[in-house]
């Protein structure tokens, strides 16, 4: 009999040591593919699950470097070739008995943060800190993968007691909400009757389940490029076209966008890089920005305002511009019957002592795109929080979670399977 608590910790600790950022998770994907195939799953990768026209924020140089690193760590060339330059995979198991198609989603990427050197930090104390300097599973996606693989094992071990089909989506590039659009666009979950996703910790502690978090915000993320013309800043500045000045003016105007009366809005310009030298009229500028909105229509209002400013500034400063979308998420609300199901399951999980009906998530999660895709095709979808104690907040360099909480996540998914596919 499988010792699932031991399995959860072992998998999580191995994954924690080798974090990979979005669209570079080749070693991680190989790790998942091998385990799923060993359990008898059909596993799809590459363009079978990725719509290339919906890929956001993928840097080919980073991809190439990550492939070389994966090969260096023992990933077979044949498996790299199968991925076709894209990470993530979907494990499919058909019981052979009529029943619903149930999909689960687990995200697999990390944060670009250097893990703390504090000797009291559990990964340092127990010897499983990140071996990839400057990268860290600081959001708990290592626990998500471990829970997902453990769910896969449990389903495989109980296949003869179950009905219908299972699709386990191991999604790349959740950070920056860059990956779900490409998975959804492939149509791989269009036949799902049910879909469930979750997040560890966040707004709840060990033993708590948040059944229906609200406030999953719509967001659109863009890179804006201005291209001007260089000139000597002293002798002939009039011959130049100042991309830096254009970008700075655009930022100021964006910060002044009137907020929408219909709901919450956000905008942030996270980086602005411009110019070539002290005595040269700056010919290039690059802004990385995002907007958020409480609903799709409010988010689109912010997008429209940003695009109008970008274009207007370009005309006013006589510079060229280009906008690239780098990520997206939508608002999402659980189907009520799925929320009721999550509450019913949580009531049976031994490690759960508190069920919180709802709570403000207050951020963006691109599970929303997959969940909405299923809903739009007639299925039911939900997202819940599996509480876990943590030393500090998500994305911080000393983030860590209570590993004992992972069994609650596994038992939640087991209970969902038993109610939908048994």
Estimated structural class: alpha/beta
Order of the strands making up the biggest sheet:
1-2-4-3-5-12-6-11
Residue stretches low in confidence (pLDDT < 50, at least 5 long) are none
Query: How many individual helices?
Result: 12
Distance between the termini: 21 Å
Backbone shape: globular
Cα-based radius of gyration, to the nearest Å: 23 Å
- Overall mean confidence score, pLDDT: 97
Helix amount, in percent?
Answer: 25-40%
Order of helices and strands: HHEHHEEHHEHEEEHEEHEHEHEH
> Percent of residues in beta strands?
15-25%
The largest sheet is: 8 strands, mixed
Record field, number of beta strands: 12
Structure write-up:
It is globular, with a radius of gyration of 23 Å. Helix 1 packs antiparallel against helix 6 (141-157) and helix 8 runs antiparallel to helix 9 (296-317). It is 35% helix and 23% strand. The strands form two sheets. An eight-stranded mixed β-sheet has the order 1-2-4-3-5-12-6-11, with helices on both faces. A four-stranded antiparallel β-sheet has the order 8-9-7-10. The mean pLDDT is 97. It is α/β, with parallel strands linked by helices and 422 residues long. It is built from twelve helices and twelve strands.
Short overview:
With 422 residues, the protein is an alpha/beta fold. Helices cover 35% and strands 23% of the residues. It has an eight-stranded mixed sheet, sandwiched between helices. It has a four-stranded antiparallel sheet with strand order 8-9-7-10.
């Amino acid at each position: 009999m499988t010792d699932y608590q031991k399995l959860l910790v072992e998998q999580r600790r191995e994954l924690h040591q080798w974090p990979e950022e979005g669209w570079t998770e080749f070693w991680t994907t190989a790790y998942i593919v091998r385990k799923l195939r060993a359990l008898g799953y059909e596993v799809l990768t590459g363009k079978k699950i990725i719509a290339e026209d919906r890929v956001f924020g993928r840097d080919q140089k980073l991809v190439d470097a990550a492939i070389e690193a994966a090969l260096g760590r023992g990933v077979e060339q044949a498996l790299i070739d199968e991925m076709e330059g894209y990470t993530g995979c979907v494990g499919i198991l058909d019981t052979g008995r009529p029943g619903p198609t149930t999909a689960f989603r687990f995200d697999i990427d990390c944060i670009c943060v250097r893990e703390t050197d504090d000797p009291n930090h559990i990964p340092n104390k127990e010897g499983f800190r990140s071996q990839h300097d400057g990268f860290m599973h600081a959001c708990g996606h290592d626990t998500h993968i471990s829970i997902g693989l453990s769910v896969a094992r449990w389903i495989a071990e109980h296949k003869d007691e179950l009905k219908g089909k299972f699709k386990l989506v191991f999604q790349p590039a959740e950070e920056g909400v860059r990956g779900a659009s490409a998975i959804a666009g492939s149509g791989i979950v269009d036949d799902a009757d049910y879909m469930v996703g979750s997040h560890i910790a966040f707004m709840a502690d060990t033993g708590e389940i948040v059944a229906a978090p609200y406030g999953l915000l719509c967001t659109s993320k863009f890179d804006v490029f201005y291209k001007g013309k260089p000139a000597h800043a002293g002798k002939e500045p009039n011959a130049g076209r100042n991309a830096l000045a254009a970008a700075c003016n655009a930022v100021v105007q964006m910060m002044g966008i009137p907020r929408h009366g219909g709901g919450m809005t956000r905008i942030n310009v996270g980086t602005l890089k411009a110019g070539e030298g002290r005595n040269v009229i700056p010919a290039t500028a690059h802004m990385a920005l995002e907007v958020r909105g409480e609903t799709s229509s409010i988010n689109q209002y912010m997008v429209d305002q940003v695009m109008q400013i970008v274009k207007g500034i370009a005309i006013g400063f006589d510079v060229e511009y280009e906008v690239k979308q780098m990520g997206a998420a939508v608002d999402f609300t659980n189907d009520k019957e799925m929320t009721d199901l999550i509450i019913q399951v949580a009531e049976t999980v031994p490690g759960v002592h508190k069920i919180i009906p709802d709570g403000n998530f207050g951020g963006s999660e691109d599970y929303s795109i997959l969940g909405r895709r299923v809903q739009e095709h007639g299925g039911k979808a939900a997202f819940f929080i599996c509480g876990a104690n943590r030393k500090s907040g998500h994305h911080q360099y000393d983030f860590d979670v209570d590993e004992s909480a992972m069994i609650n996540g596994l038992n939640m998914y087991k209970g969902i399977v038993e109610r939908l596919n048994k």
